[in-house]
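Incident log, structure service

09:12 report received: a user says their structure output differs between two submissions of the same chain.
09:20 pulled the input from the user's history:
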Amino acid sequence: MSELGQPAGSVLPPDPDHDADELVRVDNLVKYFPIRGQGLLSRTIANVQAVDGVSLTIRRGHTLGLVGETGCGKSTLARCIAGLLPITSGKVYFEGNDITNLPRRVMQPYRREIQMIFQDPYGSLNPRRRVGSIIGDPFAVHSTVTGNQRKKAVQELMERVGLNPEHFNRFPAEFSGGQRQRIGVARALALRPKLIICDEPVSALDVSIQAQVLNLLADLQREFGLSYLFIAHDLEVVRHVSNEVNVMYLGRIAESGSKDQVYRTARHPYTAALLSAAPAADPDAAAGRRRIILTGDVPSPINPPSGCRFHPRCPKAQELCGQQDPVLESKLGDPATHLAACHFPVQAGETLATVAGRERR
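09:34 re-ran on a clean worker, output below:
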């Protein structure tokens, strides 16, 4: 047994043809939610195109940051990767194994390797159950630890995430928001997974508590070799925790690359607009930054715009943008690891705030 109660060794068979550095690969994932008409025999009249053709890779021991506005499909994508939602089309591979839409029984061993930390530390914990039972649920579901050993394993987890093990029998309401999120971290860590999906894990917490939770996640990553898919609105948080960053807009990836590539040379106008609105720690940098104001609202995922989905709000949009869907590829001599889906990418020194102030062509 491991120190946290999991049998030693992986439950997943090795794949000799698989890139050992690649933990998760998502290929052209699509997730639509049907909208049905009224009546018992109603038919599908439209679809919410929550995720539409997303591909990404999560590497071992790395953190992939996923950013974008509310409603762009980040959480839906995360739940598809975790197997919590069936996928309309596309593939999800875990260590080279196709785990797309597996039956519950077949998926169960993979669930031990993929865990989630949810956004709301209040709503993600059952208020009628004691903390020890909540953290110990993974042991019970997967029958890995029983009896007194389960209590010992849970208390070890509580201590590891900065909680008092003596509070084993308390209810969630007796803990602060930050402590409740630590409970969620302990529950996700119980089975020693290889991937933890962090769905806005600090957005509901005070800034000082956010830093504590982020430091805890970083410590756990170093200690256990964890990989994270880190979803957030706060670009500075994503910059702090991530190795690679994907920017998502209306169900699709607008830009992807290493942290430095995306933050230093943003090529997609949407990425540039997000970065212009992010708070800066340096007052001089904040004073010199020109905010890019996007016009209009995010279009409906039920009927997204033709061509580039960002073109109705883009300060650089031209006629081609509404006619042809841009390919996610490297631009302006960027390395092959830095991709943007844009016909007219942002060039070095270009000021989009000035472009946005002019009338579009």
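09:41 both user submissions now match this output. Likely a transient worker issue. Closing.
09:42 reviewer note: The first helix runs from residue 74 to 81. The chain has eleven helices and twelve strands.
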